[in-house]
Amino acid sequence: MTRTKISNADVNRLLQLYDPNTDINASNNLKRSAISSILTKIGFYGQRNNVNAIEQVINAVVSRRQFMQQTQAATVIQQRIRKWFNQREQQRLTREQQLLMEQEQLQKQRYQDIKELREEFDPELLDEESLFDPDRYRQQQHQLRAQEIEERRRKQEDDRQARQAQLLDEFHNVQDMNIDILFETDQQEISDYIRT
Fold this sequence. Notes:
The chain is mainly α.
């Protein structure tokens, strides 16, 4: 039984199918030995002169290689995405901790402010639970404004009366004046007026 050799065109096509970077300009013997070593490498010990069987095996190997490369690429992408998600989760947790700390600080500041306000306000303004009573505060502010207005009126009235008294004193203490002096006319002025 004689074995028929695969044509050179088929050898070239199979080499290109297995590795597109294969040098096509090599000699036919080198190409045939390359295809033989490829078949040995991939574990194909069947009909080495059957082009269809070799093509199917090479397609399967190439598909597997592409699948593995895609799987590796997918694994790399998945690792990067997982790393990114972990970083985002860490940032979220850090932000939550910061927010909790800020809330605690705000709560402490609020309690401190309430304490200071309780000390600042009169005990009269606090209700039965020692909380600020806005109605009492409004009443107190209204009373204070009414007192200020009354005080201002009283002061203005006192100032007005003091001015009136001062004016009366000045009026009564004016030196007597000779009114005739006001109506005297200087002879010189009259003669100057007539000439003009």
